[in-house]
Amino acid sequence: MSEGARVDVGPTVPQLETVLTQAWHAAAERGGAAVALAGRLGPAAEPTAEHETRDVRVVWANPAALELLGLGQGELDDVLLLDAAPRHQRGQAWPLVAASLLRGTGGQGIGVVRRPDESTRRVQVQVVPLQGGWLVTLTAHVDDAKAARTAAAEADHRFRALAEHAPVGIFLSEAGLRLGYVNGPFAELLGTDTGALTGTAWVDAIHPDDRTELLEAVHAVLAGQERDLRVRLAAPVTSRVPQPNDGPDDAAPGTAPARSSQRWLHLRLAPTTTPSRASGFVGTAEDVTVRRAWEEQMSYQAHHDPLTGLVNRRRLVAVLTELLSSRRGHDRAFAVLFFDLDGFKEVNDTYGHEAGDRVLIEVARRMQRTARDQDVIARIAGDEFVVVLRHVGSPEEAEATGRRHLAALAGPLKVSGREVLLSASLGIAMPSQVDTPETLLRAADRVMYDAKAAGSGGYRMAHATTGRPDAADDAEGSTL
């Protein structure tokens, strides 16, 4: 009983100590503003509020209640319950609300507190019967609509504070495609100010070829799904060339010269629902131009020969797998030309590996000049090259193309100031119904060695490949 204020109401208040003890413990459990009442109610038949509460007094209040009521520690003396009721609001005064609850088994309602400065506060009144009195708990009441508006304003303030300090672009749709909010980093990514991006104007900043994909993604998000996509900006930007030691997030300026390139954004969209408004979404935008260039560079290095720039064996097998598994008949109409340079070891031994590398680079150039746009050229080993001829109508067409490649490779080449005559041996294989990339390459390789054994610059055609080691035994060919 050391906290709160207490008044000695004399012997007319029965069992006061019991009321105070119970009130103190109950208030300690419930918390908040609490007052204890003692006394007796007037006759229920009497019509006036004064009679209903004429002998009920406030006998104890905890500090929270004193603060709410605007009273000091010594100001509870002889305070009648009715004294706290504003005369112009007695129908809503918390004492009368409490009085109506005192006659029953307790309960709760909404009332008004009048403070000494004449200000009023709406409170929730909860009454719990005690032996010889009552415990009344007063809780500040906030209108639901006002509370919702306050909570929404606070949430919006927190969102904007977070968004403005975020390292990525953030944009918020108020309805459909219309943006109601964009942060500074998003405007900076799109090269304009925030005011120019509200509404639907932001769509114009996206590359025309990517707008359809963006609109489809927004449609899906408005239907309740989430979407991730990469889009280009309409205007190119100047960016650095990724360096070999760069990582995917390395955007620091390097030593390579800058170049004009397409800027790429990674957009993440998630649906939002706002009461009384149409569906919208929230999105983030991250500049992934450098990351994408790095990914492309890593992919290129994984699938290309670093010396000649031709595709490597891994990529070649992927191409053959795709062609062999295609259900389109014209995709399966292709041929594999397997080349092996004649006398390349002697060039390496005589002139050195640097000269040998220049020979290989020149061979790649000549094959690229001879090949068609739809053909695939690969270097799969030291001096072994493969050309995949797509859309070949007959073995004769494949042989004619092979002869053109052999003729292009047979021209003279200067190595270390000396003229060297190149030649190559060629094996040709066309797919059957049971071929895999490995069996097809093995068949072409086998007949290539048959051609080499017959003399430099020749070719052989494998027939009826079945994937068995002897698949190329039935072969025909010629020496140029």
Q: What labels would you give this structure?
A:
rod-shaped, about 35% helix, about 475 residues, alpha+beta
**Residue share in β-strands:** 25-35%
Strand order of the largest sheet: 1-3-2-6-5-4
Major beta sheet summary: 6 strands, antiparallel
Q: Tell how many strands the DSSP assignment holds.
A: 21
Shape: rod-shaped
Q: Specify the structural class.
A: alpha+beta
- Overall pLDDT confidence: 77
Please count the helical segments: 14
Provide a compact summary of the structure:
By secondary structure, the protein is α+β, with helices and mostly antiparallel strands.
Describe this structure in words.
With 480 residues, this protein is an alpha+beta fold. 35% of the residues lie in helices and 26% in strands. The chain has helices at 16-30, 49-52, 63-69, 94-102, 144-164, 184-189, 208-222, 289-303, 313-325, 329-332, 344-351, 353-370, 395-409, 437-454; strands spanning 5-6, 33-38, 57-61, 107-114, 120-130, 133-140, 169-175, 178-182, 227-232, 237-240, 258-261, 264-272, 280-287, 334-341, 376-379, 384-390, 412-415, 418-421, 424-429, 458-462, 475-479. A 6-stranded antiparallel beta sheet has the order 1-3-2-6-5-4. A hairpin with a 7-residue loop joins strand 12 (264-272) and strand 13 (280-287). Helix 11 (344-351) packs across helix 12 and helix 12 (353-370) crosses helix 13.
